[in-house]
Every structure is written in structure tokens, then in C-alpha cells.
Amino acid sequence: MTDFAATRALFHLPEGVIYLDGNSLGPLPLAAQTRVGQVLREQWGDQLIRAWNDSDWMALPARVGDRIARLVGAPPASVVTGDTLSIKVFQALAAALALAPPDRRVVLSDSGNFPSDLYIADGLLTALGGRELKVVAPEEVADAINESVAVTMLTEVDYRTGRLHDMAALTARAHAAGAITVWDLAHSAGAIPVHLEQADADFAVGCTYKYLNGGPGSPAFIYVAPRHAGVAQPILSGWLGHAEPFAFERGYRPAPGIERMRVGTPPIVALSILDAALDAWDGVDMGELRAASIRLTETFIREVERRCPTDDCGLALASPRDPHARGSQVSFRHDHAYPVMQALIARGVIGDVRAPDILRFGFTPLYLSEAEVVQSATILADVIDTRAYEAPEYQHRAAVT
């Protein structure tokens, strides 16, 4: 059985803070502090350039990828880490388009997708020419999959509302129509059980600084189904994706398997921090994590609505009511979402806001207790009931919301 009291002890959690924003940036794992010191002093400091061999830096992207693979239901040697999520979206979408039937012109996504993914798709499709990005409402995706679609590009968990797509059903529908699938797991990896291999997904990408606690800007990951790994075209034909980087050949030969999806020199310090952060997942059962997450989100919704009825508070649940239809987050709408959140943060409850009116709260059983969830609901109700959010200091918008 997963011991969530033990996992909580693995994180630096500031006194007096209830952290409900791990879906944006996970807290600091204590092991990361030790690991980064070792990398700086013993590897970079003492070994210098020899560390590429003596500490096996070159293999770190694949080793960390294998650790993530367990958490997303992928087989060994199918996930590699490095670069940013935007780059990995670009790679996956380009490779998927190259595998799709050549007469297909449509990339299908939905309005719940993270805007950055849509920006990347727009840019790539404009450069390729003759293709269209079609964006529909999340609940309309299944009906929009037809024989004009080359690729479906979907985020499994909606970043605003937490609405959860049925990966297996939509992947099966896409394959039946002859389309290739790309899944963004930014709000799934480490939050809910993911079953890439079981769902027969073609490509997947994800970031590691949210529920995986890899730190700000930590490297992203990409998954390629083994059946595609030897033929997927790496549009970013970078040095580290070459079959023999140190042969220094003039021509590009892609590496075998998932290694071809590497691009540039791996960020060793950041990858080492991520590797240390993943220690917290050793022994964690994803089914038990999901059950604990549902208990926390259900408690929060119940306690908020009990203390702050919609008619009195102006709050409206934006997340699906069914806990099995949402990820590990809860969102409420409020006309004054931004100042409400600033007032909450001032009282030690940290969540975030998504424009124009979403109060967003992430729930991470690795370090969050039910008592903290109840306390957060109490503070939220008080902030709204007393109209504390109307104070002038909560009206100024910072650069990051």
C-alpha cells in the first residue's frame, strides 16, 4: 500500500502554506538538493568533461525516460527526455503527419487544448502548406474524427477545467478512421494512471515540472509507440539524434528507436534534478494515487459548496461533477477570479488563475492531506463571504497568473 505520509516527508513544504498548485509547478523534492550538489561538485566539478563517460551523462535522457515510462503505461525504451514541451509537440506532430495517409489534410484538436500546442500546430502547418488545423469543442471531438483527419492532437486533461478525455476510445476511433494520434500528457503524467501502450497511442508528449516535480523548466518527454520508433521521421534532425554523433558525418542518419527523437545536448543539471524527483514515485501505486486524488477533489468540492453556495458566492463548478471524468484538479468560475486567488495566496492557500474567470486548484496526494483540503475550502469561503478580495493590493495583475 502506498504510504502518502512517507512521500510527503520527501518534499520541502513551507510552513503555513497549503499548496494547491502542483499542477503548475511541483514543490521541491528534498533529494533534488542533494543530487544537484553532487552533480555540480563531484561530476562537473571534479570529473569535468570526463563526466560524459565516467558519470554516463549521455545516457541520462533515456534512463530518466524509462522511469517516466512506468508512470504513463509505456514499455521500456519508448520514452526519452530533453528539450521543452513545445519542441516535443513539434516533433511528435511532424512525425505523425509523415506517417498519416498522404491525402489527409486535417489536424484535429479541441478548444480545451493548451494554446501553446495550437500555436505550434499553426506554425508547422503554415510551413508545410496545404493543411488545416480544425479545432472543435472537447465534447465534439469523437464526432469530428473522420476520413479527412490525418492526426488527432489532444491534451488528455483540459488545463482549465480538468475535463478528462477517454484516451482509449478516442485512439480507437482515430485508428478506425485511419488517423494517427498525438496525446499531450502535461496534466496527466503523475496525476492519473495513463495507459499509452494499452490504449495503442501512437505518440505522446508531456512536461515534468508539474505533477512529476522536476523543477521550473525541467525537460519534457516524448513517447513513440515501438511500432513507429524505427520509421518516425525526426523533423528536428539534431546532433544527439544521429546514429553516431561522434562519427561527425556530413549526412544525417537517425538513431535507432526512440533515440532519434533526441535533439540537442541534454541539460544534465536539470535532468539530474528530475531523476532525483522521480525517486518519490518508487513504490507508488498509480491506482491508489488516483483513488486518493478522487477523495481529495470530492472533499474540496463538497466543502466549498457547503460553505459557499453558488447563489451566495458567485462560484460555479467548472470541472466535471463526475470525479472519473476529470483529472486531479478542480476549477471554479468566479467573476473576480484573479483578486480572489491573490487574497487566498495571501492567506497561505496557493492555487492559480486561468483567464478569464477560472480559479484552478491541483490535488497531489504525494504531499497533500485531507485536513489541508478542508482548511482551504474554509479560507476560500471566508475570502468570498467577507469580500476580502476587493482590497486594493489584490487588484494588480502580476506577469504570471
Automatic annotation (TrEMBL):
It comes from Sphingomonas palmae. Homodimer. Pathway: Amino-acid degradation; L-kynurenine degradation; L-alanine and anthranilate from L-kynurenine: step 1/1; Cofactor biosynthesis; NAD(+) biosynthesis; quinolinate from L-kynurenine: step 2/3. Belongs to the kynureninase family. Pyridoxal 5'-phosphate binds at L85, S86, F114, P115, S116, D117, T155, D184, H187, Y209, W239, T265. PANTHER family: KYNURENINASE (PTHR14084:SF0). One of its GO terms (cellular component) is cytoplasm. It holds the Pfam family KYNU_C. One of its GO terms (molecular function) is pyridoxal phosphate binding. It catalyses: L-kynurenine + H2O = anthranilate + L-alanine + H(+); 3-hydroxy-L-kynurenine + H2O = 3-hydroxyanthranilate + L-alanine + H(+). One of its GO terms (biological process) is L-kynurenine catabolic process. Catalyzes the cleavage of L-kynurenine (L-Kyn) and L-3-hydroxykynurenine (L-3OHKyn) into anthranilic acid (AA) and 3-hydroxyanthranilic acid (3-OHAA), respectively. HAMAP family: Kynureninase (MF_01970). The gene is kynU. This is Kynureninase. Its cofactor is pyridoxal 5'-phosphate. It comes from the Bacteria. InterPro entries: Kynureninase (IPR010111), PyrdxlP-dep_Trfase (IPR015424), PyrdxlP-dep_Trfase_major (IPR015421), PyrdxlP-dep_Trfase_small (IPR015422). The modification N6-(pyridoxal phosphate)lysine is found at K210. Keywords: Hydrolase, Pyridine nucleotide biosynthesis, Pyridoxal phosphate. It is an enzyme of class 3 (hydrolase). Its EC number is 3.7.1.3.
